[in-house]
Write a structure and sequence with these properties.
The protein is an alpha+beta fold. It has two domains: about 160 residues, Beta Polymerase, domain 2 (2-Layer Sandwich), CATH 3.30.460.10; about 130 residues. It contains 14 helices and nine strands. The strands form two sheets. Strands 3-4-5-2-1-6-7 form a seven-stranded mixed beta sheet, with helices on both faces.
């Protein structure tokens, strides 16, 4: 990432100090939205991002990088990828039509591979990792209103934000505001693909947000139901897949290492199945399997109900 990025937090508009973090974010949302827009405009100007995504195409940077900049306006262009090692970009055309995918780019430093959920993972030396996805629906013609509707396809409400091109705007879905108010990590749609993977992704996001803004976020009802299924009823292969995925992400520094400990902690709320324990043993071995806590006779043993709710 270029060290020349120089976006600074705007000091033009003074706002009253609000002690509650959520109230503060919502009170300053217009300013934060504009600041985030400026950060991503600078990113587009100083890197090859627009060339990779398509100057004359409709696309949107979705989720993490935009979310973190909104929540922590101290993040500048030069620090964006230190906190978020990749960005997700949805395009309204097939990813095979990207210049780099079509072979029209002569830059051999760029590498291309499939990503876990479909689409392409592109590694560019200055930008790092970019995941491109095709979001093509009959109603999506690339307008801001279309992209707001498309955000209903994201995994979690806290990821329902985007920087859209060519409008050069930051858009915020109502679910983002709703889940921020309640400080919950929750699925946008009750039905989602790869449920076991979504569970560990939700836990990773919980940890990420707590580290970023020093606030506890709970797991929503649907995520807790999926977690219970993973711990008590999921086939061993599903559990093994989720754990492998989590270890891969933490090993590659894509997720905070604390995600592993948090995963074990939140599993305490349920009695683990034999398949769950065997999967832990298979992937982590004796040293880690011995650390798996068994469900206590009294679920609230030594804890208040408020503490238990925040852990989940």
């Amino acid at each position: 990432m270029s060290q020349n990025c120089s976006t600074q937090v705007s000091r033009k508009r003074r706002t009253p100090v609000v002690r509650n973090f959520v109230a503060s974010v919502l009170h300053q949302l217009d300013d934060r939205q504009e600041y985030t827009r400026q950060v991503f405009l600078e990113l587009c100007e100083r890197t090859s991002l627009v060339d990779l995504a398509g100057k004359d195409r409709s696309w949107a940077i979705i989720g993490g990088a935009v979310r973190d900049t909104l929540l922590s306006p101290k993040i500048g262009c030069s620090h964006l990828f230190e906190l978020w090692p990749d960005i997700d970009i949805a395009v309204t055309h097939d990813v095979s039509e990207l210049p780099v995918a079509a072979g029209s780019s002569n830059d051999r430093s760029i590498t291309i591979s499939p990503n876990s959920f479909g689409g392409l993972k592109i590694r560019e030396p200055k930008l790092g990792v970019i995941d491109f996805w095709t979001w093509t629906t009959p109603k999506n013609h690339g307008s801001t209103a279309n992209w707001l509707e498309e955000l209903e396809r994201v995994d979690f409400g806290m990821n329902a934000v985007a920087f859209v091109w060519p409008q050069r705007e930051v858009i915020i879905h109502r679910r983002w505001i709703q889940d921020l108010r309640t400080r919950r990590i929750e699925k946008v749609s009750p039905q989602s693909p790869k449920t076991s993977i979504q569970v560990v992704r939700a836990i990773a996001l919980k940890v990420k947000l707590q580290l970023l803004v020093n606030q506890s976020f709970g797991l929503g009802t649907n995520i807790r139901q999926d977690l219970q299924w993973l711990v008590k009823d999921a086939p061993r292969a599903e559990v093994t897949q989720a754990i492998h995925y989590m270890i891969e992400k933490t090993t590659n520094s894509r997720w905070p290492i604390a995600t592993l400990e948090r995963f074990l902690r939140v599993s305490r709320a349920y009695r683990q199945s034999v398949e769950f324990d065997e999967a832990i043993l298979e992937v982590w071995g004796d040293r880690f399997s011995r650390s798996i806590p068994r469900k206590p006779k009294n679920k609230l043993q030594g804890r208040t109900s408020h503490q238990t709710t925040l852990d989940l």
